[in-house]
Known about the structure:
Oligomer: single chain
Low-confidence stretches: none
Structural class: alpha/beta
Strand order of the largest sheet: 12-17-16-15-13-14
Mean pLDDT: 95
Amino acid sequence: MEEKVGYLNPELSIEERVEDLLSRMTLEEKVGQLKARILHIWKSLADIFEGLEPEQARKFDVVFRELFRDRDLIEAISRNLWQKKWKEIILEGSNEKYPIGELSCALRPFSPREGAELANEMQKYILENSRLKIPILIHDECLHGCMAKGSTSFPQSIAMASTWNPELMYEVATAIGKETRARGIHQALSPTINIARDPRCGRTEETYGEDPYLASLMAVSFIKGLQEQKVVTTPKHYAANFVGDGGRDSNAVHFSERLLREVYFPAFKASVEKANALSIMAAYNSLDGIPCSSNKWLLTDLLRKEWGFKGYVVSDYGSVIHLMTKHKVAKSRAEAAKMALEAGLDMELPESECFEEIVGLVKEGKLSEDVVTEAVRRVLRVKFWLGLFDNPFVDPEYAERICDCKEHRELALRSARESMVLLKNEGILPLSRDIKSIAVIGPNANVPRLGGYSGFGIKVVTPLEGIKNKVGKDIKIYFAEGCGLNDTSKKGFDEAIEIAKKSDVAVLFMGNSVPETEGEQRDRCNLDLPGVQEDLIREICNTGTPVIVVLINGSAITMMNWISGVKAILEAWYPGEEGGNAIADILFGDYNPGGKLPITFPKFTGQLPLYYNYKPSGRVDDYVDLRGPQPLFPFGYGLSYTQFRYSNLRITPEVISPDGEVTISLDVENIGKYKGDEVVQLYLHDEFASIARPVKELKRFKRITLDIGEKKSVSFTLTREDLEFFNADMKLVVEPGIFEVLIGSSSEDIRLKGTFEVK
C-alpha cells in the first residue's frame, strides 16, 4: 500500500499535518491561501460600460441597479456567472497551478442539491489540477439561516434574543449548521454579536441586543451549534461596530478601554474562550483613530495573546482597501496589505484587492515571509479541522433532504412563538373565537418580511395567511393594505377605514422592512413608524373598532403619537418563514407570549442612546421636558396572558469570600388563567466600589413554563466571575462589600430584593 504524503495522512495530528504542508509550499502557494474571490454582477457589467463616457456609464449603472432589485433576476445572473466562470478564479499561477483559499458566496443562488453538486465539482477540479491539492473554503452568511437558496429561515437575531432561551438558540444553530455544511459551505459569516446600545443603527436587527451577558450566552450557543456540525463561525464585527456617533453603523468609535472591556468585548471574549470560535471578522470602523482591520492591539495582543484565539481573522468585505480609500492611513494597496497582515488579519474578503501585493512585498523585503507563513498556518489549521483534506465532498441527496425539512420548519415555528413580545394588552388578547369578523390592515400584513441577510426560495407564511389558516371559514377576514411601508400617500386609507368599521376587531401589521427602511447602510435618525403608518393607526382607532398593532421590524419603535389609542401591541420582529402562523397562534391564545425585550424602547428618539445598565449621573437621569421613567418599555420587559407571583427569596450563604459562591433561590407561581412562560431575571448591584459601577447588571436568567396554579423553585449560583470588575489599573478584582440582588420580570419590574456580603 502506498504511504500517504505527511499532510495527507489522517493518522497525524492537525499540527503535524499543517507543518508538513507548510514545508512544501512556495511563497505563491502560501499567499494563495490568504486570498478570496467573488463574482460581482456589477464588475461583470463593467464590460458593458467600457468605452462609454463617465456620465453615460453612470446612467447605465443607475438603470441596472434599479433593474436588479428583482431577486429572481439577481439569482439568474449570479447562477450564470458562477456556472461559467468558477474554473477561471479558483486556481492561480501560470505553470504550477495553486488554489486560492476561499470563495465568497459561490453557492448562494443554487438549490441545495445544485449547490452541493457544484461544490463537489470545484473540490474535484482542485484535486485533479493543482500540485498540493489544497481544498477550497466556501463561505456565506448564516445570520438566521443559511442565506443560500432553499434554506430554512428562522427568526432574526434580535427575535432569537427575545426568547431569552440559549438552549433554543443552540437548537436553531444546529439546524442551520446541518443545512449549511450539507450543501458544501464551510464558513458562516455569523453571528453578529455587536452590542446594540443605540437602536438608530439600521443593523440592530442582526444583534442580540444591548446587554453583554445575554449577547454572550446567545453567541456561545450559536457558535457551538454550528461548529459541532463542522461549520466555522465568524463572530462579527470586531469591535464596537454599531455605535458610532448618531447611532451610525461603522462610524468612528472613541470609547475608553474600560467601556470596551465592560460592554463591547465580553461577547467576543466568550466566543473565543467558551465556544472556541475559529474565525473572527475585523470591523470597518476605527477605534480611537486606528482602523480595526489594522489594529494590532485588537487582532493580536487582545484576541490572540490575552484570549487565546487559535483561528484566523478575516476582513469585513473591503475593509482592507478601506485603509487606503476611507480611513486614509495607507497610501497604496501594498501598504494596506502590509498593515493588515502585520496587525494580525489573515484573509481579505470578499476578494483580494490588496493581498495581491503580498508576493511583491516579500520579494522586495518589505514584509517578512514569517508573517505570511503564520497567517497561512491559521487558515490551514482550520481546513484540517474541517476534515477537507480527508473528504471535501458532500452528499447532494442529503442536502436536498435536510434543507427546509419538516423538522426545521417546526423549529422555526416554535422559535417564532417564543420570540414575540407582548408590549400592551388592555384585555383584548387573546381574541375570542366568538368574534365574527377581523379587519387585517397594513403594509406588513400580506408580504414576507424576513429581515436582513435572509435566504430565499422557501415558502414564507405571511400574517394574513397565518390568520386565515387559523380561523378557516368560521370568521370573516377583510384585508386592505391601507398604505405603503414608507409612502406619503393616504390613497388606501378609505378602504382600510371601511373594512375596520364593519369588523369586530382591526389587526394592523405595521413596522419596517429591510432594505426599504432599515438594515445595512439604512441607519435612522427617527424611530417613529415610517411614512404615513402612524396616521393610518390613528384613523383606524377613530372608527371605534378595537385596534391591535402587530409590529414587524428589527429595532425599537417610538409610539407616543398613537400608543394610547390602541388596545394591544405585539412585537413580532422579523419572525422567520413560519411567522404568520406563530402570530395567529398568539392572537388567538393557542400560544401564550413569553418573550422579553433585549433592547430598551425609548419614548422619543432624542433620548438615545438609552439602556438599562447605565452608571450613576452627576446630575439627574431625566430631562426637563421628560420627567420620571425614561423607557417606553424597559430592557427585559414583556407581558403574558397570565400572572406570576414571586416569593421566598433565599440567599445562601449571606457572607462569602472573593472566590466563594452564593446560591440565590426563589419561588415563582402562576396565579393566572393560562399556562405560560416567565423569564426570571437576576440583576446585581455593587453598592460601593472603587470605580463607579452600573445601577444594575444582568447576571442570570431562566425561562420557565408554568401550568395554571403551578409553582416552581428557581436557583442561580453566582461565582467570582459575576462579581469582578476592572479597577483603576484595569485589573479584574472582587472588592469586599455589599452586593444587592434584584430579581424580577424585567430590569424595572423588580419583585424581590436581598443582599450578600463579600469579605
